[in-house]
């Protein structure tokens, strides 16, 4: 176990441990992907008969709303460097892909370690339409063997693009599973992960 921890210490276990992040659910769970508050306000199209004003047909985004969010995710570390990639499903985004930022082991616990996104980094979740959700992770891993571990923790949303610009919120990770499936040229392990997460997102 000691040698494995040393290997992990060298590795940034790339972010594949993260995320965050995302969602098995039926099509109904994704039906709110386009909310009514993003449609054109009908009042902007009503003008008095003698009005010379131009019609404003620009969609106006409503106030931010907090919604439940769920994710299912499978990811793997990059084979030639820090970070990783993942695929999955996430409420409000549909099918997702993403990249995990480099991370770091920042503390040891009984039987395992704590892992987080390196300061200034972010995981990027890509929605089916190209919008992005950004997040960071703070996870606790407990070894179940020399090559496997379970984990839980928190994914925090820190922004995004498109309809997720300024997004905030969190997901609590459940049923996280890690397995070392290979080794990089520098001797550090390559990890494959999977998890489910539930929480809230505001956008």
Structure explained in plain terms:
The chain has one domain (2-35, 65-202). The protein is mainly beta and 203 residues long. The chain has an eight-stranded antiparallel beta barrel with strand order 1-2-3-6-7-8-9-10. The N and C termini lie far apart (43 Å). The model is unreliable at 1-60 (pLDDT under 50). The protein has one helix at residues 2-10; strands spanning 66-77, 84-90, 94-100, 103-109, 112-117, 123-126, 132-143, 148-160, 168-183, 189-202. Helices cover 4% and strands 48% of the residues. It contains one helix and ten strands.
If you average the pLDDT, what whole number results?
79
* Secondary structure: number of strands: 10
Q: Helical content, roughly?
A: under 10%
Number of helices: 1
Number of domains: 1
Low-confidence stretches: 1-60
SSE order, one letter for each helix or strand: HEEEEEEEEEE
Q: Which outline best applies? A: globular
Q: First CA to last CA: what distance?
A: 43 Å
Strand order of the largest sheet: 1-2-3-6-7-8-9-10
Output the structural class: mainly beta
Percent strand: over 45%
């Amino acid at each position: 176990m000691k040698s494995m921890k040393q290997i992990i210490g060298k590795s940034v276990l790339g972010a594949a441990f993260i995320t965050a992040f995302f969602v098995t659910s039926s099509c109904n769970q994704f039906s709110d992907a386009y909310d009514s508050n993003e449609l054109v306000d009908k009042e902007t199209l009503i003008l008095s008969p003698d009005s010379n004003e131009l019609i404003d047909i620009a969609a106006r985004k409503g106030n931010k709303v907090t919604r439940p969010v769920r994710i299912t995710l499978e990811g793997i570390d990059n084979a030639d460097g820090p970070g990783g990639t993942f695929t999955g499903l996430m409420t409000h985004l549909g099918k997702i892909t993403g990249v995990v930022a480099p991370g770091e082991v920042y503390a040891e616990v009984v039987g395992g370690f704590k892992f987080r996104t390196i300061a200034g980094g972010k995981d990027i979740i890509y929605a089916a339409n190209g919008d992005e959700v950004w997040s960071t992770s703070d996870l606790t891993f407990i070894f179940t063997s020399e090559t496997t571990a379970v984990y839980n923790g928190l994914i925090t949303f820190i922004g995004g693009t498109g309809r997720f610009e300024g997004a905030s919120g969190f997901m609590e990770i459940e049923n996280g599973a890690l397995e070392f499936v290979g080794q990089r040229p520098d001797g550090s392990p390559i990890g494959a992960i999977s998890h489910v997460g539930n929480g809230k997102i505001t956008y």
